[in-house]
Amino acid sequence: MTNAPASRPVFCSIVPPHLLDSLARHEDPDVHLPARYTLELDAAHRTRRRIGALPTAVPDTATGPDHPVRTIYDARHQQTLPGEKVRAEGAGPAKDQPVNHAYDGLGATFTLYLRAYGRHSIDGRGLPLNASVHYGQGYNNAFWDGKQMVFGDGDGRIFQDFTGSVDVIGHELTHGVTQYTANLEYFGQSGALNESVSDVFGSVIKQYALRQTVDQADWLIGADVLAPGIHGTALRSMKAPGTAYDDPTLGKDPQPATMDGYVSTSQDNGGVHINSGIPNHAFYLVAAALGGHSWERAGQIWYDTLTGGALASDADFAAFARATATAAQTRYGDGEEYQTVLKAWSQVGVPAAPTGTALPRQASPQQQAPEGAQPPSQG
């Protein structure tokens, strides 16, 4: 087994802080009080992650059981984790649907990684999958804390039960996969890539569970977490970044689809939840062009990139794009897959061809990604 450096502890949640910040400034108490409460809890978890140590490991060979080992807990609207154990692996369905949704979502994630890529759970070695539901009072988020999943019920006004979207569960658990493999730093472009990888495999997991082809999929992240009455379809759209919602309370989806819309900001660790729309769209373009099932060729290329060991933890968009091109070429040669990857990154304005390699004739001119700010000193 090859050991990787210890990861930099970060807090990763499905609802981005920029959206919660906006809601926290709303004049309606039914909107701003739950948002402020969620931000306070998220800040506490972020601090605990920052002072904790999270070991990472990249196994040379996959080991572990060929089935998930799941345990679901009920936090009973308290903030103490994990809560009361309510469903163990192999037990029948509970009367509480969020318990069952969490159980099924953990299983769907395990199944995709095992059957599509031969990976045994999040760490590649059969890590048990634990989750707590009913966390807090009207908590508007879901997160992976480095050890387990945690789900809020939502406030009922803006958000609802976060266990209802299997892609949300897959997204958060994939932060764990990244933690144990490429360990992408959660700042700037590498942080946006960290978020994008989670969106990619969150969507792939949903498509695998529903046995959808790329043209049947909705390519939405969090389509079931917005409460009735909100003008929007989801938290994010990979097919059309920037169109997921446009609501008087939520505001308008700020994600760009190409480097022309790249957002330079100091908020949200350098806009990790905003600029992730660019690599998200690149993956969608690859999957749509290749057709079939997203977990096959397109997903395999992204998985090879994430787990291959050659990707630097501070990789920017261009480095990741080149790595996907190399992964495609290594596995499939110089044919359709490789050319499709080059073209997709070109369409979003990121250079992907390895140094010294000519771009395909159909590719549009490249646009170099702007340099992001460096992460603050850890001293």
UniProtKB/TrEMBL annotation:
Requisite cofactors: Zn(2+)
Domain of life: Bacteria
Domain Peptidase M4: 73-179
Keyword vocabulary terms for this entry: Hydrolase, Metal-binding, Metalloprotease, Protease, Secreted, Zinc
EC number: 3.4.24.-
Annotated region (Disordered), positions in chain: 352-379
InterPro entries: Metalloprotease_M4, Peptidase_M4, Peptidase_M4/M1_CTD_sf, Peptidase_M4_C_domain, Peptidase_M4_domain
Biased composition (Low complexity): 362-379
Pfam families the record matches: Peptidase_M4, Peptidase_M4_C
Peptidase M4 C-terminal domain segment(s): 182-350
Subcellular location: Secreted
Top EC class for this record: hydrolase
Keyword Cell membrane belongs to the record: no
Function: Extracellular zinc metalloprotease.
Family: Belongs to the peptidase M4 family.
Name by which UniProt lists this protein: Neutral metalloproteinase
Lineage start: Bacteria, Bacillati, Actinomycetota, Actinomycetes, Kitasatosporales
